[in-house]
Write a structure and sequence with these properties.
Helix content: 40-55%
Shape: globular
Number of domains: 1
Radius of gyration: 20 Å
Distance between the termini: 49 Å
Structural class: alpha/beta
Largest sheet: 4 strands, parallel
CATH architecture: 3-Layer(aba) Sandwich
CATH topology: Rossmann fold
Strand order of the largest sheet: 2-1-3-4
CATH superfamily: Creatininase
Number of helices: 9
Order of helices and strands: HEHEHEHEHHHHH
């Protein structure tokens, strides 16, 4: 069920019946020359909607504000100030909770959001909330990943590559310009190879200054349809597990009960 398509009465019933909201998050950024700027949030939202048809849940409207500072040097990117971004996402999550959802699944469509989302999950321990956050760590299960590896033809990937291009072909083929796929794969330039293992904000740009990583020439609709199917099944299974989970809410209640006792007389 898509949040924005429901009437207020239908929405209230959906909250009671499902108890889970899926919050798909992406960004707006360059995806080489052949994929749309909205690739990440379009794919995440589409997969979430299909999964919610299999395992009933309410899917939040497309959300495209995330961590994408490394793409600010390209046309079309949309990046918000760091504190505004965190406040915005936390505010949206609070509104989802205020509307009655006690469990929220953050479904990420952009690799650059990973650290941000994990940090947001950690900040949930700053104050007691009426909801619990769940973040799936896999887009597809290990067995399904093996099937993808058997199907995959390129050796490298990472951004606008065979995987992401195929996925987009499976979801929105009309938005993919296969005739604009670069003629050569984009390999890491390793411009920071003189340093020991290091993470920096400029790290992605240092390796992939054209915002393309991998080889999209072998992408296909057939591969994309398989990826969509596997991602949908994996997310639907995850939603079912979240619905059945009593552990996270109980642990959070225990944790905050102990927080509230700190500093009090015995």
């Amino acid at each position: 069920m898509q949040w924005e398509n429901l009437t207020a009465t239908e929405f209230a019933a959906a909250v009671r019946e499902t108890g889970v909201c899926v919050f798909p998050i992406g960004v707006v950024e360059k995806h080489s020359e052949h994929l749309p700027l909205g690739t990440d949030f379009l794919n995440a939202h589409r997969v979430a909607c299909l999964a919610a048809e299999k395992e009933p849940a309410v899917v939040f409207p497309p959300f495209y504000f995330g961590q994408i500072y490394e793409a600010r040097c390209f046309p079309g990117a949309v990046a918000l100030a760091p504190t505004l971004l965190i406040d915005l996402i936390r505010g949206v999550l609070d509104e989802i909770g205020r509307n009655g959802f006690r469990k929220i699944v953050i479904y990420n469509g952009h690799g650059g959001n990973t650290h941000l989302i994990r940090f947001l999950a950690q900040t949930s321990l700053w104050e007691r909330k009426p909801y619990s956050l769940y973040i799936p760590e896999r887009q597809i299960t290990a067995k399904r990943a093996e099937k993808w590896l058997a199907m995959r033809e390129s050796e490298v990937g990472g951004h606008a590559c065979e995987n992401e291009t195929s996925l987009t072909l499976g979801n929105t083929p009309e938005l993919v310009r296969m005739d604009r796929v670069p003629e050569e794969p984009a390999l890491s330039l390793k411009r920071m190879s003189g340093l020991p293992a290091t993470f920096t904000g400029i790290g992605w740009y240092s390796d992939y200054p054209d915002h393309y990583a991998g080889d999209a020439r072998t992408a296909s609709v057939e591969k994309g349809q398989a990826l969509v199917k596997w991602r949908v099944k994996t997310l639907a299974e995850y939603i079912a597990a979240v619905k059945a989970d009593p552990v996270v809410p109980a642990l959070e209640d225990e944790f905050f009960g102990r927080v509230e006792q700190v500093g009090r007389p015995e």
